[in-house]
Amino acid sequence: MKLFGRRAPAPALPRLPAPLPDVFEPTTPLEQALVDHATGRIDRDAVLRAFSTARVFVPSHDDVTNAEPGSSFRPVLLDANGDVVVAVCTSALRLRGLLRATPDVASGIEVEAAWVIEHAGAELGIVLNPGWSVAASLPPRSDSHGER
Known about the structure:
Layout: E1 2-3, E2 6-7, H1 29-38, H2 44-52, E3 55-60, E4 77-80, E5 83-88, H3 95-99, E6 107-112, H4 113-120, E7 125-128, E8 136-138
Parallel strand pairs: 5-7
Antiparallel strand pairs: 1-2, 3-6, 4-5, 7-8
Helix pairs in contact: 1-2
């Protein structure tokens, strides 16, 4: 399985963590869209539009804080009921929910969500805010047209 231009690791992946009991206070427009969807104020398409234009935080097992372009980057992968998903946070503040499932996160990068979608490929799904009550997921691409 290719992942961001490299083969994905073969070992067993950590499972998605259960949501934190914390109250979720939105701090970004994407987080507000997730809250609005959870309360029925907007539909899934509105959330997808908000996601596609948002900047997101992609946690990494490698320290990429001061990394040069092209250096090592291993995004955090999780097992979501048999699907392999890349962990993505709406901001670095949301990393705490993920750390319970995989404490070896070294850092991460902030990127356009469209970049994540493009680089995840057909084999990987995307989970947004793993370990938080306000979360979302996109399954791996399942059709020949590459649509999620």
